[in-house]
Amino acid sequence: MSLLIDNSLCRPFFINGSREHGILLIHGFTATPGTMNPLGRALAEKTGYTVAAPLLPGHGRTPEDMAKTRWHDWLRGAQHAFDKLSRQCRDVSVVGLSMGGALTLLLAETRPVRRAVPIAAALSVYNEKIIFANALWPVWRFFTEPEKKHEVIPDFLHEYNDTYDKTPVHCLADLNRLMRLARQGLPRIHCPIMNVRAGRDRTIHPRSTGWIMTEVSSRKKVLLELPRSPHVCTLGPERELLFKETAEFLMEK
Question: Where are the domains of the chain?
Answer without folding.
Answer: 4-251
